[in-house]
Design goal:
With 306 residues, the protein is an alpha/beta fold. The chain is built from 13 helices and 11 strands. Strands 1, 2, 3, 4, 5, 6, 7, 8, 9, 10 and 11 form an 11-stranded mixed sheet that branches. A hairpin with a 2-residue loop joins strand 3 and strand 4.
Amino acid sequence: MNLEKYLDITPEVAEAVAAGKPVVALESTILSHGMPYPENLEFGKKVEDLIRAEGAVPATMALIGGKIKVGLSEEDLVTLCKEAHNVGKVSRRDFATYLATGKMGATTVASTMICAKLAGIKIFATGGIGGVHRGGENSMDVSADLQELGNTDVAVVCAGCKQILDIARTLEYLETMGVPVIGNNCDQVPAFYCRNSGHNVDYKASCEKDIAAVLKVSHDLGFKGGQLVVNPVPEEFAMDYNEMEAIINKAMAEADEKGISGKDITPFMLAKVVELTGGESLKTNIQLALNNAVCAAKVAVEMSKM
């Protein structure tokens, strides 16, 4: 496999991976499609700073100029954030096309897992994963994130799946794919904006060291799939579950009326929820993503000691 032709790893990340030091992968769709400029640039810098403060090395992923960027230079980060309107949302099916054409692409959960695996990075922090969409039993609209979790051995730290999705069916799909859902000191799977969803985790870990121990055993056994680590949004930023359900149902009805589907549905829904909550959901989204990055960094540090 001739990966050198495609992989562009920053010296900081390459040295850390080679030395077995803690590294945390980060997606870039949250920067290009999740928030406007310059807030996205401020977030991108802050999340990397938080990971470094915990003793780990951040590796933000993107596809730029026919290269898989593992870790972004400041110039790359500014370009990605500032030119977001020209940046595509890249999952597994789009990966080779964007590399072949040299188009700029932001990585989703699935494609960030691919990048992390290729670069030898074992843990990845995001906001929330994709999953089975509401009505997915009829539309068959299921995120590629779930297939990737079932096949790529990278641990994903998140605040559950996005609440705009069908959480129960998403968890059933993960069970079928053999993906364990590990709670970071929580009994229930969080519902992204909210701390509880009414669905139990597979295993409640009491701390990041416990999580790292489970991940190490999984790697030692050579299991091909990943692990989902769910980390609730801090209480001071959490939103009310019933209120959010009402807002999401309203946004979903509008999406149906406008015929929005496929890869366009998630960005539309998230933007509509931000509008209907008067911007409060975006504040929560930012805080939970930062919180997940800190959790992932702590787990990565613990793993590096084992």
